[in-house]
Structures are given as C-alpha cells and as structure tokens.
Design brief:
Layout lengths: L9 E4 L9 E8 L3 E6 L16 H10 L3 H4 L7 E2 L8 E7 L2 H12 L4 E9 L7 E4 L3 E3 L6 E3 L9 E8 L4 E8 L6 H8 L18 H4 L18 E7 L8 E3 L4 H10 L4
C-alpha cells in the first residue's frame, strides 16, 4: 500500500539546496521502492542542459548522504527521478529509492506503460474542438531552450487534449494526457494546436490578465498587477501502473493556481 499524504508528512530542504528559500515538500505517496513529492515551480527534478535551477535529485541525495533522519527512516540507498519535469511545471515528481527500482521505473516510463494527466490554462479559442490530438514529432531547437515540430528529424510524441471548462472571461481549462512525455512536450504541442499555455512566453503563450481585468469593479491596491506569475501548467496525476490504485498519485494545483482558476471562473 502507498502511504497517503498528510500535513506532517513532508521533507524539508533548507537553503541553498533548492534555492534561497527553504522548502518543505509534501509527500504525496510512498512505497518501499519509490517516493512521490509535490514539486513546486522553480525547481527541477534533475540536472538538465537547459536548466539553471537547482534540482531535487541532488538535493535529496545530498541530505541522504548527510544522514538526514526523515530520509534515513525511508530506508533509501539512493534517490533518482523517474522522469524529467521541467522547472516551470508544478506537480507530481516520483523518485526511486534504490538503483534497481530506478531502472525498473524508468523502463516503465520509457516503454509508455505509465499515464500522465496535466492541467493547463489557455486563452479561449472560439470554434476550436473540445478534444484535440497532437502528434507532431519534436526536435530540440539548435539555439533556444525549446522544442520545435519537425517531421524530418523530430522524435515521436503524442498528446491528447480535452477542454474541461471555459469561462465568460475569455479563458479555458484543459487536460493533457500522454503515456510518455519528452521535455516541454505538453507546452510545445499546445502551441502547435494554437492553445499555448498562459504565461509561457517561450511558446508564445498569452500573458496573465491583471487583477482589474478579472474583477473590473474592484478598487484596491495592486489591481494593475498580473494575476499570476509563471506558467499555468501542472502535472495533476501520475499512474505508474494503470489500473492500480496504489500506484496512482494525485496532486492538487498549487494555491496560487487554484486562486487563478477561481477568479477566472474555471474551478470545477
């Protein structure tokens, strides 16, 4: 059985492990072989050539080697991220607790045996179908830290999108699902389908509305400031073994994203 999250079940990361601020990240689920943490935006899961942000692999292993009690009691010999989740995205991050488990879980991921469900906010697009499929092969841009579609040299990638809410304020909430994802896949495929993610300037996503645009009748300080910072993309569910409830991990959007959805009239 996986261990379900509670308010006290979390792992601390003092600075500078994940940056200048301290973090205490909730444990979403846990077994003898793996640990799932709620990753905030602004940190990576593991080192990647594009990224300058600190990564959770290094932070976990540094503390394990230093004998941190809340890691030692988990009987891990090593922590390794099962998949790469880029720093801009919040949500479920899974770490194997030993090298044999890491090999097994990464093989599952690479073979398309897992399932992933993302949530994203976009500008509403009149006339666009509520269900979309993207299959554009993706290629690393030769200069910019991004992926571009390329039928000639790109690697296979598939993402299904489903619109689950749309508001009168001009915004839409989508779900994106895939059984394997490459770096920036959801962001790049959303842009290909002309529904780029809110705040994603790298893929020409719309800017976040101001507080005044969402609540034109309110008069208070800060109404001209953006209502959201970052990219409105969140990994909400991971199924390491589809159909196995104990291997299904859920993660609510972070508080600031939930607040944005409420203000946009997209909370479901």
């Amino acid at each position: 059985m996986s261990e379900k999250p509670n308010k006290k079940n979390a792992i601390g990361f003092p600075p500078p492990l994940l940056g200048e601020a301290p973090f205490r990240l909730p444990v979403l689920a846990e077994t003898a072989d793996w640990l799932a943490l709620e990753k905030p935006a602004g940190v990576g899961t593991r080192a990647y050539p594009w990224d300058t942000e600190p990564d959770m692999d290094a932070a976990l292993n540094t503390q394990l080697q230093a004998g941190k009690p809340e890691l030692l009691r988990r009987e891990a010999t090593f922590f390794g991220s099962v998949y790469y989740l880029d720093p801009a995205i919040s949500g479920v991050s899974v770490f194997a607790k030993n090298r044999d488990a890491l090999t097994d879980l990464r093989n599952r991921f690479g073979s398309g045996e897992c399932r992933f469900r993302f949530q994203l906010v976009t500008a509403a697009q009149p006339g666009i179908e509520p269900s979309l499929h993207a299959d554009a092969p993706l290629l690393l841009h030769n200069v910019k830290p991004k992926m571009i579609p390329s039928t000639a040299k790109g690697k296979k990638a598939f993402t299904d999108f489903k619109r689950i809410a749309e508001s009168s304020k001009g915004w839409a909430l989508w779900e994106a699902t895939t059984d394997f994802f490459r770096p920036h896949q959801v962001r790049a495929h959303a842009a290909v389908l002309e529904i780029p993610v809110l705040g994603d300037a790298l893929y020409d996503g719309p800017e976040a509305p101001t507080q005044r645009e969402l609540h034109p009748k309110k008069q208070r300080a800060g109404v001209n400031l953006p209502s959201f910072q970052g990219i409105a993309l969140h990994l909400a569910e991971v199924q390491l073994i589809p159909g196995d409830a104990d291997a299904t991990i859920l993660c609510q959007p972070p508080k600031h994203l939930r607040l944005l959805l409420r203000r946009m009239g997209l909370d479901t």
